[in-house]
């Protein structure tokens, strides 16, 4: 496994700077860097922690970082120029599925636990609840909006949707500045440990095995350096495969706890990362590989985010949404890399039933969009 | 007058950036240092321009406001595909990011970004740009005062006053601001 690969084209670039945000699901990048998994594919990975998703975007566009651990939706937001710069982007592969959650303040979570509906619990505040997420076009915003709407709560009218840095979310709950938040781990574990709130929903309950973080770069990077992009995908596939073992996840939880990576105690990272012990029975575990089922950049996954931007009034451009998704998601590059690594390719079509009992398989995006009652 | 909000929630020193911008005539809003205060500050004080450390953890708060609220400032350094890639790299590299309201002419934003870049970066080249901006602003003030003098004392129109200064400058082969300075110095004598 550690012998150099001599059958593949040599990467045009050998030193790659990879951006990441302090989250448990940055684990594949940590594994790739710490275990030097790039060596076999002729690349060296340097990790560059970023303080915000906006910084990830700007540094991808400026070239200060080559690729990044990014919210699926962030890539599509930049591709479509929603609320900021527009640039041609690439999704090289999916890095993980599941592993995010919604936490509400203790009184709200207790009310729901005792049988109140989400709608009634939020209405009991007598004011617009303030619920945070992490980036306007990101995955957490879309999971939160979808979940609220499925419970009959209009996410734009009935709720004030704000963004604050995830490390600040537990404090904001304690101070009463927030009533809840949707973000990645370990920030829900941190909020519960501080008795600031309680996890009321796991994102796998919203969309089982939903796509979450992706390996993103600019489209021209993938086009200019195809052998580099291929080597990077193969390296990250090795890292994701390594994470399929719970012993390995425990090992990386220790590494993630360090100040340079997450700076959060291991005891708060490990349970929700390993999930085989201490995990909540309602949640599907965060998945990084699953024989390669996780990682294929299925075009219908990307298209789903565009349907949601249209639903919430963030996009009204007359464009071919499916063609946009097909140009962003680098399926050919992924297939080539996976084949070279002997990793099985999943079926192109995948149907999932979401929390509002609606089925998404990418087949009829217009019909899916038209079927939402709660929308902007 | 443009309303400018400085976000200072990182430990990067910004020196006298605030005073500098105030001297240039911008309406400087109360600084925001806590991430939780930023949302309220933007909604209630309605800045035209927000200057923030590229490395600030609060930037995503501004991104949310830009998408949800059409009147809120949007990220501007890379506001279009035609944006100068070198300038973007310099700005991101120097560690300053600006957000501005839609429709604000880039020319009105440029001096603010120039000054902020210089303050954030402490680089000689950027210092020169700052000096140039300050110099141009000073020259404009001197020329305005000289024009006003000619208009008051000689009953000239603004157009004619400027034309007179310009002709003298061309005759002597110096800058208009230099002629304006000479004129003001002379008028101080009498």
How would you name the CATH homologous superfamily of the largest domain in chain A?
Periplasmic binding protein-like II
Given helix and strand content, the structural type of chain A is alpha/beta
User: Which segments of chain B are poorly predicted (pLDDT under 50) over 5 or more consecutive residues?
Assistant: 78-82
Helix content estimate of chain A: 40-55%
Radius of gyration of CA atoms of chain B, rounded to a whole number: 20 Å
CATH architecture label name of the largest domain in chain A: 3-Layer(aba) Sandwich
**Level-1 CATH class name of the largest domain in chain B:** Alpha Beta
Tell me the count of domains of chain A: 2
Oligomer: heterodimer
| Most extensive interface, chain pair and sizes | A-B, 34 and 31 residues
State the strand order across the main sheet of chain B: 2-1-3-5-4
Please give the radius of gyration of chain A in angstroms. 20 Å
Order of helices and strands of chain B: EHEHEHEHEHHHH
Portion of residues in beta strands of chain B equals 5-15%
State the separation between the terminal residues of chain B, measured CA to CA: 35 Å
Helical segment tally of chain B? Answer: 8
Q: Identify the strand order in the major beta sheet of chain A.
A: 2-1-3-10-4
Specify the number of helices of chain A: 17
What number is the mean pLDDT of chain B?
83
């Amino acid at each position: 496994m550690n012998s150099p690969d001599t059958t593949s084209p040599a990467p045009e670039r050998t030193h790659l700077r990879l951006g990441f945000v302090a989250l448990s699901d940055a684990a594949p990048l940590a594994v790739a860097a710490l275990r030097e998994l790039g060596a076999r594919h002729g690349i060296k990975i340097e990790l560059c922690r970023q303080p915000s998703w906006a910084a990830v975007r700007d540094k991808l566009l400026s070239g200060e970082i080559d690729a990044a651990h990014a919210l699926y939706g962030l890539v599509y937001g930049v591709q479509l120029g929603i609320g900021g710069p527009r640039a041609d982007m690439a999704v090289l592969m999916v890095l993980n599925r599941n592993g995010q959650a919604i936490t509400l303040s203790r009184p709200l979570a207790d009310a729901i636990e005792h049988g109140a509906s989400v709608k009634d619990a939020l209405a009991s505040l007598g004011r617009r609840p303030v619920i945070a997420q992490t980036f306007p076009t990101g995955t957490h915003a879309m999971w939160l909006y979808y979940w609220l709407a499925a419970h009959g709560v209009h996410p734009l009218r009935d709720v004030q949707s704000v963004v604050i840095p995830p490390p600040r979310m537990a404090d904001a709950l304690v101070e009463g500045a927030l009533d809840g938040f949707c973000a990645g781990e370990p920030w829900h574990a941190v909020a519960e440990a501080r008795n600031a709130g309680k996890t009321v929903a796991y994102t796998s309950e919203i969309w089982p095995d939903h796509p979450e973080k992706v390996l993103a770069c600019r489209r021209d990077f993938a086009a200019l350096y195809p052998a580099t992009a291929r080597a990077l995908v193969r390296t990250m596939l090795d890292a994701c495969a390594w994470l399929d073992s719970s012993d390995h996840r425990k090992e990386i939880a220790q590494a993630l706890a360090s100040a340079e990576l997450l700076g959060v105690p291991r005891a708060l990272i490990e349970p929700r990362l390993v999930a085989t012990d201490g995990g909540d029975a309602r949640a599907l575990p965060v998945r990084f590989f699953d024989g390669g089922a996780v990682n294929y950049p299925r075009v219908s996954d990307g298209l789903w985010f565009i349907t949601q931007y249209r639903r919430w009034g963030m996009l009204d451009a007359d464009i071919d949404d499916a063609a946009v998704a097909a140009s962003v998601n680098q399926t050919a590059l992924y297939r080539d890399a996976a084949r070279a690594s002997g990793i099985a390719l999943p079926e192109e079509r995948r149907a999932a039933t979401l929390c509002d009992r609606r089925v998404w398989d990418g087949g009829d995006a217009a019909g899916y969009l038209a079927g939402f009652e709660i929308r902007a | 007058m443009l309303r400018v909000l400085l976000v200072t929630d990182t430990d990067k020193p910004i020196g006298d950036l605030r005073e500098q911008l105030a001297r240039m005539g911008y309406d400087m809003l109360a600084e925001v240092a806590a991430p939780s205060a930023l949302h309220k500050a933007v909604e209630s004080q309605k800045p035209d321009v927000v200057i923030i450390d590229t490395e600030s953890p609060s930037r995503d708060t501004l991104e949310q406001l830009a998408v949800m609220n059409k009147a809120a400032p949007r990220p501007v350094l890379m506001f279009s595909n035609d944006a100068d890639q070198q300038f973007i790299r310099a700005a991101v590299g120097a560690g300053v990011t600006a957000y501005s309201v839609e429709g604000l002419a880039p020319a009105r934003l440029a001096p603010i970004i120039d000054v902020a870049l210089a303050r954030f970066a402490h680089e000689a080249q950027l210092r020169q740009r700052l000096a140039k901006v300050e110099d141009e602003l000073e020259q404009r003030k001197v020329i305005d005062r000289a024009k006003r003098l000619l208009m008051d004392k000689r009953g000239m129109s603004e157009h004619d006053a400027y034309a007179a200064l310009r002709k003298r400058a061309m005759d002597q082969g110096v800058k208009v601001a230099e002629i304006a300075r000479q004129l003001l110095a002379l008028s101080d004598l009498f």
